[in-house]
Amino acid sequence: MFGAGAGAVPEAALRCRAIEKRFLSNGRLDPDRPVLAGVDLEVPPGSLTAVLGPSGGGKTTLLRIVAGLETADAGEVRVLGETVTGKGVFVPPESRRVGLVFQEYALFPHLSALDNVAFGVPGPAGLTRAWGALQMVGLSEVASHRPHELSGGEQQRVALARALAPEPAVVLLDEPFSNLDAPRRAGVREEVAQLLRRLDATAVLVTHDREEAFLLADQVVLLLDGRVVRSGKPEELARNPGSRAGAEFLGETNFLPGESDGKTALCEIGRVEILPPASGGKPPRGPVEVLLPLDGLLVEPFVDEERAGSPAAVLTRTAFHGAFQLIEARLPSGRPIAARSPARDAWQGLLRPGQRVGLRPAGPVPVFPRSRT
Amino acid sequence: MKPIFNIEKKPSTARFGRLAAAAIVLTAAAGCTGTPEPETLTIYCGRGESLVGPVVEAFQAETGIQVAIRYGGTADLAAQILEEGDESPADVYYGQDAGALGQLAGEGRLSPLPDAILDRVPARFRDPDGRWVGTTGRARVFVYNTELLTPEDLPDTIQGFTDPRWKGRIGWAPTNGSFQAFVTAVRLLEGEEAARAWLEGVLANEPVAYPNNSAIYQAVADGEVELALSNHYYLFRFLVQHGDAFAARTVSPRGGGAGGLINISGGGVVNTAANPEAAERFLAYLLTEAVQERFAGETYEYPLVPGIATDPAVTPLSEINPPDLELGDLDDLRGTLDLLREVGAI
Amino acid sequence: MSIPARRTRWPSRRLRAAGIVVAAMCLLPLVYLAGRAVAGGGLLDVLLRERSFGIAGRTLLLTAAVALGSAGLGLPLAWLTARTDLPGRRILTGLLALPLAVPSYVAAFTVATALGPRGLLQRALEPFTGWERLPEIYGFPGAFLVLVLLNYPYVYLAARARFAVMDASLEDAARVLGAGRWRRFRRVTLPLLSTALLSGGLLAALYTLSDFGAVSLLRYETFTWAIYNQVRGSLDRHTAAGLALLLVFATLLVLTAASRFESASRPSPGAVQARPPRLHRLGGWKWAGLALASGVLLPALVLPVGVCLYWLIQAPAGAGTGLFAALGRTGFVSLLAAVATTALAVPVAFLTVRFPSRRSSALRAISHIGFGLPGLVVGLSLVFFAVNVAPFLYQTLALLVFAYAVHMLPQAIAPVEATLGPLSPRLDDAARSLGARWLRRHRRITLPLLGPGLASGLALVFLTSVKELPATLMLAPTGYATLATTVWSAAENVELGRAAAASLVLLLFCAATLLVVLRPGRPLRPAVR
After folding, report:
1. Distance, CA of A64 to CA of A147 (rounded, Å)
2. Which residues of chain A make contact with C270, given a CB cutoff of 8 A?
3. Which site in A234, A317, C327, C337 is 20 to 30 Å from C246, CA atoms measured?
4. What is the pLDDT of residues C161-204, one digit of tens each?
């Protein structure tokens, strides 16, 4: 069971290695457009990992491969150290200890909430456990209701209870909150996250919502075009998305062209310090793209125009967003730039369009090689 | 102002709407034109269209009388006339079973016919009270396979069918109307108990049951069974199609009795007929020499008007020894059906 | 989302009026039968006869067996064509619905010819096996076999339609929850199909109650055969009416049984397709699948067609006479019947689905009575009514279409109900809030969404109208020969070639109709959401 040298290191609850998947297009394998191209994923026990990416990025396919509902063209899936897909092994979904919460919940319409939850735990003892699971999600009062008699949030919780009742090694959640309306979503996802933590469950959440991933997950995996472009703690990702594409997907950043000398880069707002690449190795040299996150820019409201090295931008618009203020400005080159600063800064009410402001990064920033076009 | 969205019409909806409208209009239109005009002669005909159709056309051409003819089952049409009551559009009822004619007459739904019509046929082929008249005769026969049997092997009467030597070698069509009329005749002639005993005796010989008379002839010719009970005229239809090589022939039972029953096709004038004169003219027309000859030649049935030659291939009426029976009394088909069911024949 | 919002509301006056009209139409045969049976003492007569109980027992036994058998055959065939990679399933999809168009007398005759104790099969086997007789097919086995072969398409079509909209993720969910193949089928797929199985099984049951051809040719005495015997044997319409009333009673029993099951497995709105299903790979099992499909099509379709071709070749002379005109008439009157019947089915379906109440379930029961009655009884009752109440309608196309509608209404109600079930009534509210009036709302919203249900309703009624015989013979305008009456009269007159040609034209015609309805890649799927 335990490989040599695994000794002290706890085995990941779920480990995917080099998963490949191509779909048929027009009845033929399309080699140019893999759905998944060598995806690695490691989920430590008791943690919540979010797989974040745009629609059509292969997230759901990855989940279905882990659950055994799809086969992988190559690669390996291990659950609690046991290979369930790959190396010539294929354990059918019903024999994997993997729970799945479907995007549309897939509750059995002909069964009551309780019977839905009890489906995965047959037998009289199962009913007790199902009841416990329903209580856990706070739905014991609607146990006899059919799915169509439940609200969206209740259906969501029933689906979660159903997936958790058989005590899977890992529970997969496929866009579990996308069917809820915005006001309810925040509350429900908070509840779900707390529940998963309370149970010490290992969970993989698939989402296209950056905020959701950052808020809930211990670890975020950014999946773009079938490749993992970056994975790490939410704050690490926020600081360094790992690639230009990743940064574009996460949004809320400015890109400025610059020239790198390997330690610093010169761009329109002056010389900035470079953050070492997430993948390790040396920062690029030469023409680069400097990434300036909205939250990582400090705004100096009243700058001395003649101060060297920090050309001022002209403020074009301010927008008050409650906890923070969005500041939009135009650089001398005409390039727009935006920043976000906490609302508590006393000077905010004094800003007027047309006035000059200074902008500088709060710390080292990531740069990516710039292709010359 | 221009429309903001140019929404295409769903063709299926429009089509459904148009269809529905068309259906209503057409149905209503049909409702106004369907009733035949009063001078039209309406015939309820329980005989085949290909046989009667040309005769009716000739009748129209000769007399100028417009005819509307409704084909159907002999019994179904009789039931329909009963259900229609006084409003029945039928002028003539023309069927191929004396029993149905007897029943309609018994319910008072047929008017007495003039002697000029009745006298055309011998008394035994018409109603004693003159309410219906036979037009052609159809004889019950034994059908046998000519390669496996000779006429000498055959039984003299239907009683022979109960002989164990025929076990597994005989066929019949117990659901067929002609067979059932024949069983009715057995009951009338021999009594209920004898009829039951005969049926049980035949059943002990494990007869093969066929759905109709053509199937019987085909089976006999194929040697599937060697001997069977059927009507005489089917043979000639097969001979026309298959030639003389067709390996089945018929005999009329030498010993006579119910096995030589001659049933009729015939007609009567419905008592509520709007057009009784034309109705009588039609019945009279069926008994003209030309039509009788036509029936004899085309259907190989027996013409009932004396002096008309039977087809030379058919055993002449004079050589058949039919039972002494009032054909109109064959109307207790229900009793026959009960009996057939009780013994397990159907 | 739950949608009981409408349940407490009243149907509109227009809808109620339509319901009353349909109920009145469908009650006509019942009024006639009651009158005949009570006035003529037929009911008492029948009830006092010991044999009636045997007939009742046999009728119910055959009905239940055919309903179950049709479900048992229709379900796997629907699964094979809708959910697997069965080779040739495009063409099989259409072919497997076609036995619906085979008249039962034709099927029964050919099955008896082929499988009878000394039929074609025995003769083919005898040289090898030496068997001189095969086991008796007459009685229950034959009637059961033929009726299942002709009626399984009701279940097959309904189940296919359900498969088409079934959310595949439900089965995935069951797998992930550890359910094996059998448990998934028993606990998830089967319950989801139950409404389809029930509505299809109900139609098969009612058809069995009303069938004459199969039970008479294969000799199994049911109510319908007894009724025909009374009418044909002794023109006794009173006893026949008494028997028919018992048949109505049997119909109500069957309906009650069906609604018991139904309320336990009511489909819930919104359970529709989220993820298109993947086709199961049959692998080596494809041969078993093909064997099943051909084992059904051989006796139900190939055999009748083969026998017809044989006869046609034997006697081709004059076989085509008048067929073209008969085809035109058949198509015309069947189309009218299909449109009229489906139009009548829509208000019934609305009332039963949207406003479930005691009254609407009574309407549903009433509208099903006509289908359980033999065509002969429907025909005779309309003869009586037309002659006494509306003589100007007697023996017009209008009356014939009316008879078809009374006789075939449930076949259109079932698919319309099935499509209406998952539709949100809020769509209508939305259209109303956008200012659409009644006609526009229905023309633009309801009808297009009901499209698939309407289409299959139209097709079912059309197919059964094409082969209907006894009522057509009685009620069609005089001289209005259709394909079915041509088959009958030619067979009656031993013009086997002509009967065969007319049967073949009839079958081809129905096949063409089915192909239009079951256009490849367009399953009978309700458009929802």
Report:
1. 23
2. 109, 148
3. C337
4. 778 777 778 888 888 888 888 888 888 888 888 888 888 899 99
